[in-house]
């Protein structure tokens, strides 16, 4: 893949690679922090949900900010992927980019439910059931977004496998993570949330996704665009 743009411009592959690497590693930090914070405040049931959220409102505010940062970085990564791979893989980079942008939009929508939960918990009439319902709406909306995210990972994995410079092993890991997210989404339709299989599957998914994306992010920063 080649580019006629000179180094130091935002259209040069090296700049796209750096943007992709920074965005990916930024999400690798902000995403897990936000997710673990929300899981900790949600608790096992509706009882005391409003009290937990009110007690941890500063943490939830940080989680909301982190999720919104992830959504912004998703858009940056979408552009970077399209720019970096776009000239040699036909329509696939554009598809991967639009899937990532769509996921970012769904994530931002889901974060709105977290803001609703925070407003309920810290308002004049805290309501456990309403606060928990808002948290559940966040989870349901985010799960929908993860289906789109799975498709993005799968398409990105195919692009990496077809690319003559990017390590093929990264493509394999991204493909596995993408299909894993899809399997997780289907499994959640038929299994209870506390099923052991879901716990194991979720752990494997997080590990494979982080491994694949973080490794790709590091490769983007260290090697991406230098030989294109």
UniProtKB/TrEMBL annotation:
Q: Mind telling me which residue stretches traverse the membrane in this protein?
A: 16-38, 58-85, 97-120, 140-161, 168-191, 197-222
UniProt cross-references to InterPro entries, sorted A to Z: DUF4386 (IPR025495)
Q: Which domain of life is it from?
A: Bacteria
Q: What are the record keywords, sorted?
A: Membrane, Transmembrane, Transmembrane helix
Asked if the keyword Membrane belongs to this entry, the reply reads: yes
Q: Which Pfam families match?
A: DUF4386
- What's the name of the protein? DUF4386 domain-containing protein
Its source organism is: Myceligenerans pegani
Taxon lineage: Bacteria, Bacillati, Actinomycetota, Actinomycetes, Micrococcales
